[in-house]
What we know:
Elements: H1 8-21, H2 28-41, H3 52-73, H4 87-90, H5 104-129, H6 134-145, H7 150-157, H8 161-183, H9 191-196, H10 201-216, H11 224-231, H12 235-258, H13 266-269
Amino acid sequence: MHTIQVDLETIRPVVAAMVRQYGGPIQDIDDLLQETWLSLQTVNFDPARGDWPTLCRVVARRRAHDYYRKTASNGAQCNGGKADSVEAITAARGDTAVHGSVDDDTRRVDDADELRHVLGVLHLVQGALGMDEHRVETFLRLHLVYDGDTTAASADLGISADALRASSREVITLAQIIRAVLDAPDNARSIVATVASVPSAIGRHAPTYLGAALQAGGVTAVEAHDLAQITGAPYNTTRQYWARIRVLARVAAAAFAYRGQTASDQDGLFPGGL
């Protein structure tokens, strides 16, 4: 392994691409350029484990992810960020934003292995449930071939940029469910808790919606209008949330089955099976 001298202007286009992907303003480029450059100074690059341009993109993406996550926590807005980033699947362990705590290149390999495992299980689970498996392939092409650039991917794949972004967010949410199941201790196998762990509005509403389903006798025994009355939310909003939560609950149950286990609340939510 060896350290490579990094020229700021060489990595500027890479950093600029990450800022565009996250929907940040152009003035963010200089700040992120400095952070990316500093991180690359600490990387021990091993050519046997990957090429240098790819490593630069990985480090730049991670610095952008950290930057915009911090920005969001301070109340600012950006158009991209965690929901559209492949790091959303592997960067939620709480120790990934600390500069210098781990080797970026080593973490890159670990994250790639985890991503491969999670998406592999997701592919199997979707097949078992009869769900569309093509979106995982599209997701991988978007992020591995086009580096998350929906404009370039849209032109080549013939899919609208909005559809690509929506599909990417859905795959990430499903993958977060899979990862939560794979990480769950044997004594905490809960579909409700798994869906509630998704870091979005879906996760926040899951305990209420699925709790109502448990009381009613299963997910098919409660309707959106019932949930709207319980929550006081608009019917259309409730209907959309409930449709997504039901899907995520099925995926969680199937993922536990992949582990050879049955969630403690599966019979209550799916008494007739998945």
